[in-house]
Amino acid sequence: MAGINQVFVLFMLILVGYYTQKKHxxxxxxxxxxxxxxxxxxxxxxxxxxxxxxMTLELFKESAVLALISFxxxxxxxxxxxxxxxxxKIQGMRRDVLQFTMIFPNVGFMGIPVMKAVYxxxxxxxxxxxxxxxxxxxxxxxxxxxxxxxxxxxxxSRQTFVKRLIGGIDPVLYxxxxxxxxxxxxxxxxxxxxxxxxxxxxxxxxxxMMFIGVILASVRVxxxxxxxxxxxxxxxxxxxFPLAFYLILRNFVSGEMLxxxxxxxxxxxxxxxxxxxxxxxxxxxxxxxMVFLSTLMAIVTIPFLIRFxxx
Length: 311
Description:
mainly alpha; 15 helices; globular
């Protein structure tokens, strides 16, 4: 129950960010700056200290298994997304964006803070291993989806998959590797430095959730209403897919690994969806609507999943 209460606290922070942006208390540049600050400063410190203070051989083995499991989950998500868009007769760029949002969850800004609230430092470690698989597929299949019906995109881009992958590696992965090396070599971080890193890392959860609120405030709410497909797709992504994953996965794993996999795949559409859609001349307005609606709906669905399938 404590984990669910902490999740509700995180979601209240989304409202703080939303209010802040609506009242014009921050500039548009703040959105980009705070996003970069979280992903490149606070979250790497957060991950490094979580690995340094909590990693054990058993946890490492479980996290590695979770990374392998995530490949199968993403594979099922890809297959399901093709089936859903085919049944609903969705075509063109709309199909690209809706498939993308069904497959790729908001692991970074929402997934890691929620996992921390539910499982503590071990939840952060699970999430980072999950991010590895996420990045690998995002910069391969994800880019393919966004370029599939792209106007003006070169189908055979000069930027290879390897270059996209290396250029898009989250700093949190570097922190994971650094933490593992420190643990393997039994290097002790000086107390003063450890306190600084911990203090910086503790900013991650509140800043991440407020950042999501700021992003949501930039979407015109009236544009979301009237499009029944995005409501249905959001419901499928946030409730139907996780339930299907749970029913399949519970036959093979249990405990925290099962819970972590379900929670992370049940996250709403990632805030980078609209950015990637814009990069490849796809329907960024639809992407923004999906981020907005799925995030709002996740405020209800995620606590439900935690309560009935994980806790």
